[in-house]
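Recap from last week: sequence in, structure out.
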Amino acid sequence: ERLVAWLGMILGLVTVVPTQEICFARYNSAPGVACLRVEVVDTAQEKTKGLSGKKFMPQDWGMWFVFSSTGRSASGGDQPQKLAFWMKEMQFGLDFIWLNGKQVVEVTQNVAKPKNKEAEREIISPSVPADGVVEVNAGWVEKKGIAVGDFLVY
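Predicted structure tokens:
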């Protein structure tokens, strides 16, 4: 009986996070496909937390923040918007793949982990409206050849 209670406590501490495989079809760089597994983030609470506090992210993994017309979330409108992100409590660097619908509209590469609390408040934002972003480990975009004009497929 104690064993069952103990296992229940442990299992209650483990959170199962749904993931999905997505791919980027490359058209503007070397033709091909680059795939990764992502955690889909579409609630306000999940978006606020993001990757904050995580120690690392496995290679070929990412986090997909969905805001509107990607068809995965009812939150937000159908129009792309000016998105803004910060690196609060980040333990590793990131690349940002900004999306409008399923098309890559901008990439922000090699954003370093913040060196201090003030640096955590710096805003990372695309220069064009977007309705989603995929965060991946710094260097992934260059390694996989992701570029503006490529398409997300899932």
